[in-house]
C-alpha cells in the first residue's frame, strides 16, 4: 500500500450524549484528537469533515485538514454521515480512503494497519472493505475505494441516507476483527462511565 488518505467525521448532533462527543476527553485526550492521530499513523493525509471547524481549532491535529461541510438546503444543521463522507471523498486523491467516526475510543493503530496492508488483495469489484457486526456492516471504521463516489452521489441524489442500504447494493470485502471492542462506540453518558471504570 503506497498511499492512503483518511476521512474523520465530526458533524453529528451528539443528541444521545448531550454534548459534542468530538470534544469529550477519554484518558485526557479529546476523542476527535485521539481518532485523528490514529488516522494520521495509517494515512498520509487526514481530512476532518465537519460543519464547524472553528470548534476544533485548539486541538493538536498534525497532518489533518478541515473540510467544511456544506449544509443541504432542506436541513441547515446536519444531513448525516453518508453526505459528510461524500463531501470528504470528493477531495481524496488516493485509491483507498479510511473512513472513521470520531467516537471510537478503543481504536487501535495495529488493527487499522493490518487492514490497510490487506487492501492490495481486495478484489477489483469491491467498493469497500469493512468489518461486520450483529446489525450489518460497520461503515464508520473501514476502507472505501475513491471510485465509489459517483455511485454514492447517485444514491444520495435519489434520497438515500443509509450506509447499510447503499452497501447492500454493492460488493464489499469482509475484514476480520480481532476483538469487537475495537469498534466500541461512545454514544451515551453511560458509555463514558463504562470507559472510565
Ligand atoms: N460530517 C458529519 N458527520 C456526521 C454527521 N452526522 C453524524 N456524523 C458523524 O458520524 C459519526 C457517527 O455518528 P453518531 O454516533 O450517530 O453520532 P451523532 O449523530 O452525533 O449522535 P446522535 O445524535 O446521538 O445519534 C460521528 O463521528 C458523527 O460526528 C453529519 O451530518 N456530518
Ligand atoms: Mg456513534
TrEMBL record:
Cofactor(s) the record lists: Mg(2+)
Organism: Anabaena azotica FACHB-119
Name of the featured protein: Probable molybdenum cofactor guanylyltransferase
NCBIfam families given in the database record: PRK02726.1
Subcellular compartments: Cytoplasm
EC code(s) of this entry: 2.7.7.77
Span of domain MobA-like NTP transferase: 6-167
PANTHER family per record: MOLYBDENUM COFACTOR GUANYLYLTRANSFERASE
GO MF annotations in UniProt: nucleotidyltransferase activity
Amino-acid positions noted as binding GTP in the UniProt annotation, renumbered to this chain: 9-11, 21, 75, 103
InterPro entries: MobA-like_NTP_Trfase, Molybde_CF_guanTrfase, Nucleotide-diphossugar_trans
Function comment: Transfers a GMP moiety from GTP to Mo-molybdopterin (Mo-MPT) cofactor (Moco or molybdenum cofactor) to form Mo-molybdopterin guanine dinucleotide (Mo-MGD) cofactor.
Predominant cellular place of this UniProt entry's protein: cytoplasm
Binding locations of Mg(2+): 103
Catalysed reactions listed for this entry: Mo-molybdopterin + GTP + H(+) = Mo-molybdopterin guanine dinucleotide + diphosphate
Amino acid at each position: 500500500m503506497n498511499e492512503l488518505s483518511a476521512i474523520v467525521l465530526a458533524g453529528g448532533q451528539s443528541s444521545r450524549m448531550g454534548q459534542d462527543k468530538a470534544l469529550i476527553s477519554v484518558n485526557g485526550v479529546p476523542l476527535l484528537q485521539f481518532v485523528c492521530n490514529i488516522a494520521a499513523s495509517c494515512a498520509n493525509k487526514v481530512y476532518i469533515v465537519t460543519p464547524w471547524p472553528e470548534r476544533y481549532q485548539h486541538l493538536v491535529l498534525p497532518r489533518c485538514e478541515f473540510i467544511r461541510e456544506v449544509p443541504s438546503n432542506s436541513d441547515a444543521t446536519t444531513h448525516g454521515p453518508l453526505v459528510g463522507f461524500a463531501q470528504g471523498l470528493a477531495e481524496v486523491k488516493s485509491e483507498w480512503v479510511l473512513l472513521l467516526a470520531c467516537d471510537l475510543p478503543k481504536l487501535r493503530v495495529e488493527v487499522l494497519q493490518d487492514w490497510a496492508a490487506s487492501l492490495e488483495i481486495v478484489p477489483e469489484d469491491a467498493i469497500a472493505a469493512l468489518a461486520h457486526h450483529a446489525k450489518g456492516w460497520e461503515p464508520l471504521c473501514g476502507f472505501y475505494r475513491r471510485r465509489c463516489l459517483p455511485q454514492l452521489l447517485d444514491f444520495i441524489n435519489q434520497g438515500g441516507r443509509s450506509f447499510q442500504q447503499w452497501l447492500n447494493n454493492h460488493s464489499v470485502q469482509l475484514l476480520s476483527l480481532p476483538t469487537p471492542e475495537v469498534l466500541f462506540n461512545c454514544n451515551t453518558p453511560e458509555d463514558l462511565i463504562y470507559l472510565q471504570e
